[in-house]
Write a structure and sequence with these properties.
Keywords: Hydrolase. It is an enzyme of class 3 (hydrolase). InterPro entries: Bact_Sigma-Reg, GAF, GAF-like_dom_sf, HATPase_C_sf, HATPase_dom, PAS, PAS-like_dom_sf, PAS_4. Its EC number is 3.1.3.3. By secondary structure, the protein is of the alpha+beta class. It folds into 5 domains: 117 residues, Heat Shock Protein 90; 103 residues, PAS domain (Beta-Lactamase), CATH 3.30.450.20; 144 residues, Beta-Lactamase; 152 residues, Beta-Lactamase, CATH 3.30.450.40; 228 residues, PPM-type phosphatase domain (Phosphatase 2c, domain 1, 4-Layer Sandwich). The protein is 32% helix and 25% strand. It contains 21 helices and 34 strands. The strands form 7 sheets. It has a 6-stranded antiparallel β-sheet. It has a 6-stranded antiparallel β-sheet with strand order 14-13-12-17-16-15. Helix 2 packs antiparallel against helix 4, helix 11 runs parallel beside helix 16 and helix 12 packs antiparallel against helix 16. The longest helix is centred in the middle third of the chain and has 45 residues. It is elongated and about 120 Å long. The termini are far apart.
């Protein structure tokens, strides 16, 4: 009877085979069929390969669970391609052929198997029966004397936490409250990721979210307790579903040193002990290796050191991996040692002189007290005797495995041979997993750098660039970071930005870094260790601890002690500095830090160095852009009038919009200035083009108008001399349309204007009755002909009248083929009767902006003058 089913389809690509294997493995383990997982995975791999590689079609995999076993079906979409059978011509080709091997394996491994054809698909299935086993028996270990049983401090507590589909805590038992300090109501509904301390390494390992989605998972991580400390736990996750089909994950958690309660026992291989050889009879290495996932390097290494320690009955064990140049060893897994302090620390391969100072050879140290420094990793750990052996692949050093004990004289050459035999068996698997991790890390690093480059290229703002640098670094590469900037070669580094993954620690970290001297701006590439923050935090914590000690010798809980100790823990690990070098100049430093004696792994430092180069260039580009914009704004502001004068009896309003990002002034300009007592000049013009070139002619025109008008020249003479000055510019000259006028307010409340319109859109006059008419006649523009004959026209603005002057950016506003034009502008102005000068200008601008959806591509200027009505009281 079929009790459960799981199905998936896989595309006809090579990677689908590995994905199908993982699907079948997770499904069967989730059903509790670990006894047949290996056979099922092997058969599935062969059949899916036949489908996606040889048949070249999608593969449909169906897993069926029954009480007595499991059935797996693999179907492809190529029914015309017959399956080669035993004794067929294909079989005669020999055992090295590339097709049909899956059926041979089915015949050898499966309880039953068969092939089914339909007009559209071919289905190959196999069934694996469960082995007979006594009720309640799963696996068992040997009977041990009481003295050899694991020691616990007291009652063993097993926290049971149920996580729903969204990753939130649904259930939290009493043991979880005791282990971690949170009551159930404090955590229910919150995401497990809020409490789980999971490694942040880009491109490697499985994250907590992914682990919760697997049908079964075992491993080690941490839970942040209510007191802020991380409790190392060993976890066993099982994904289940309720009667309504809703999935959830049940997590069983114990303290890491009590992992034997949950850890799945590993069955030894069914081989003849006599054939194992004398070195293997006591501890077959299959038990030593365990069964971690093939791509889980951390799990493989951790299980290796734990089995090594147990195999030699040691107090601690460690495994180090060699760098690519084989000059250093990096700590990757330890047990029985302060792993938080040692992880990713580096030690030299050649620790001293002589044969036993090198990690390339097996070594036994009977008493480390007699040879201090022989094994740097064990300094100040209390370990006295140690045996270390190399891990080698094809004669190349790939790592080192060691087991240590607290008592001297515990190990001899016999233990070294046993450990070396184990190391030889595990070396290839470790190197394969390491290369796989390195490849994933490199892929993750490339993705990280591409995304970082895109983000940094998307802004030219200095402050935003600093924030992006920090946010991309924390927490992906480091726990906290600080960015120092250098304004110029004569300036000292300045602390510009600080970020910590815990926002509550940012202020304390910033205060700490502000009290110490910044790192030296050394241009040498690469990361260098900076010890000052850790030392400063440690000293501050000691001073406050001594100051806050009470009479009974216990520290007060209040005051600054908690904050300072928190800051000390935040910067207590390794701190490195990377120079920010751009255009052969050090413009700052990027500082990265780890908490609680953590170390950076070399791959992370190399990734940080790549990021620092990109960030330095982006930061320098932002600096150059800021300087350019500051200069540009300063020059552009000099082209605008400093302010509008107050004209008695006349309301004046100006609105100016320059086209182009960051431009305050373009080809359009305006001016309003006093000429002499009672007389005022005004101008509005448009230089051909936009941008800095047009702005240069703008400056020439505006300053020439003021100078010539104040010399007493009339409107035509002013424009004729300006025309000559523009032509004298030669190739830099530009066409210029200009409306220039002089204004005389009168005692009766009116105003007299004399206007010259040189090629400019005509000014419009709005009367009190709502009529609109041009206020001048068109005349030739400037910058084209040497000899101009211009004349001025005189008009009188009565109380309530409005004079509207605009540039062609207003009248030539377009939406597709439509254009606002002079008539459209006149229609808008006709609706402005009774409005103030400011309201008229605002309504015109609003009408122009609403006329088209696209941003304006030309400069726009609006100058309105209105004669207010006389007070009739």
């Amino acid at each position: 009877m079929i009790t459960a089913r799981a199905a998936a389809s896989f595309d006809p690509v090579g990677r689908s085979v590995a994905i199908a294997r993982a699907f079948v493995r997770d499904t069967l383990q989730g059903w509790g069929y670990a006894d047949v997982v290996d056979d099922a995975v092997v058969l599935t791999s062969e059949l899916v390969t036949n489908a996606v590689v040889h048949a070249g079609t999608k593969a449909d995999v169906l897993c069926l669970r029954a009480d007595d076993g499991v059935r797996v079906e693999v179907a492809d979409r190529y029914p015309e391609r017959e399956v080669p059978l035993l004794g067929s011509p294909a079989d005669i080709a020999g055992p090295d052929r590339e097709n049909g091997r899956g059926l041979l394996l089915c015949a050898a491994l499966a309880s039953r198997w068969g092939v089914e054809y339909t007009p559209t698909r071919k289905n190959v299935w196999f069934q694996l029966d469960l082995p007979n086993r006594a009720v309640g028996t799963r696996s068992a270990g040997p009977a041990l004397p009481t003295a050899l049983l694991p020691v616990t401090d007291g009652r063993v507590r097993v926290a049971v936490v149920q996580i729903d589909r969204a990753g939130a805590v649904r259930a939290w038992n009493e043991d979880a409250e005791e282990l971690f300090g949170y009551a159930a109501e404090q955590v229910t509904g919150k995401a497990l990721t809020d409490f789980a301390a999971w490694p942040h390494t880009p491109g490697t390992s499985t994250g907590i979210v992914e682990a919760l989605q697997l049908s079964r998972w075992e491993g080690t991580y941490g839970i942040r307790g209510a007191d802020g400390r991380v409790v190392p736990v060993y976890a066993s996750h099982l994904r289940v579903r309720d009667t309504e089909g809703e999935p959830s994950t049940v997590c069983l958690l114990v303290r890491d040193d009590e992992r034997a309660v949950l850890q799945t026992p590993v069955r030894p291989p069914a081989a003849d002990p006599a054939a194992l050889g004398e070195n293997r009879s006591a501890d077959p290495f299959e038990v030593f290796i365990g069964s971690p996932a093939p791509d889980d390097l951390d799990g493989l290494l951790q299980r290796t050191v734990e089995r090594a320690r147990d195999m030699l009955d040691g107090d601690s064990a460690f495994l180090l991996l060699a760098t690519d140049d084989e000059t250093e060893l990096e700590v990757r897994a330890t047990t029985g040692l302060p792993s938080a302090r040692q992880r990713f620390a580096r030690v030299p391969v050649e620790a001293g002189t002589g044969r036993y100072g090198s990690a390339r050879m097996p070594a036994v140290h009977e008493d480390l007290a007699a040879v201090p420094g022989a094994v740097p990793l064990l300094d100040s750990t209390g370990m006295r005797s140690v045996v270390t052996v190399p891990l080698k692949v094809e004669g190349r050093l790939t790592g080192s495995l060691g087991v240590a004990a607290e008592s001297p004289g515990r190990y001899s050459n016999e233990e070294a041979l046993r450990l070396q035999f184990a190391a030889d068996r595990i070396a290839l698997a470790v190197e394969s997993a390491r290369l796989g991790e390195l490849e994933r890390l490199r892929r993750g690093s490339l993705s990280f750098l591409v995304e970082a480059s895109d983000l940094l290229a998307g802004t030219l703002d200095r402050d935003q660039t600093l924030a992006l640098m920090a946010q991309m670094t924390v927490p992906t590469l480091a726990t906290w970071c600080a960015v120092y900037t250098i304004a110029d070669q004569a300036s000292d580094p300045y602390l510009s930005y600080v970020l910590h993954e815990d926002e509550e620690r940012i202020d304390g970290l910033k205060a700490l870094l502000s009290k110490i001297n910044p790192p030296e701006p050394v241009p040498t590439p690469g990361a260098r260790v900076w010890a000052a923050p850790g030392e400063a935090a440690h000293q501050a914590a000691l001073r406050i601890s001594m100051r806050d000690l009470g009479r009974n010798g216990s520290p007060h809980t209040g005051g600054g002690l908690g904050t300072t100790l928190s800051t000390a823990a935040a910067v207590g690990g390794e701190t490195v500095v990377l120079p920010l070098v751009a255009r052969n100049r050090v413009i700052g430093m990027l500082t990265l830090g780890k908490p609680s004696d953590d170390h950076f792994r070399q791959e992370i430092l190399e990734l940080a160095e790549d990021l620092s180069r990109r960030a330095a260039l982006a930061l320098d580009n932002a600096r150059l852009y800021s300087e350019r914009m500051a200069i540009s704004r300063s020059l552009q502001r000099s082209l605008l009038p400093p302010g509008l004068p107050q004209i008695p009896g006349v309301e004046v309003e100006v609105i100016y919009r320059a086209a182009g990002e960051g431009n305050e002034v373009g080809g359009d300009f305006y001016d309003l200035f006093p000429i002499r007592d009672g007389a005022y000049g005004f101008a509005i013009g448009d230089v051909c083009g936009t941008g800095p070139e047009a702005a240069a002619v703008t400056g020439l025109a505006r300053h020439a108008l003021r100078l010539l008008a104040r010399e007493g020249f009339g409107g035509p003479a002013v424009l004729e001399r300006l025309n000559a000055a523009i032509l004298d510019e030669g190739a830099r000259s530009r066409f210029l349309t200009l409306l220039y006028g002089e204004l005389w307010p009168q005692e009766d409340g009116s105003a007299i204007l004399k206007i010259v319109c040189a090629g400019h859109p005509l000014p419009l006059r709005l009367r009190q009755d709502g009529s609109v008419e041009p206020a001048a006649d068109p005349q030739p523009l400037l910058g084209v002909m040497d000899d101009l004959e211009l004349y001025e026209q005189t008009i009188t603005l009565d109380p309530g009248d409005v004079l509207l002057c605009v540039t062609d950016g207003i009248t030539e506003r377009r939406e597709g083929t439509r254009m606002l034009g002079d008539d459209g502008l006149a229609d808008v102005l006709a609706t402005c009767t009774g409005l103030t000068a400011g309201a008229v200008a605002a309504r015109v601008l609003r009408a122009v902006e609403r006329f088209a959806a696209e941003p304006a591509s030309d400069d726009m200027a609006i100058l309105t003058m209105r004669i207010p009505e006389q007070d009739k009281r």
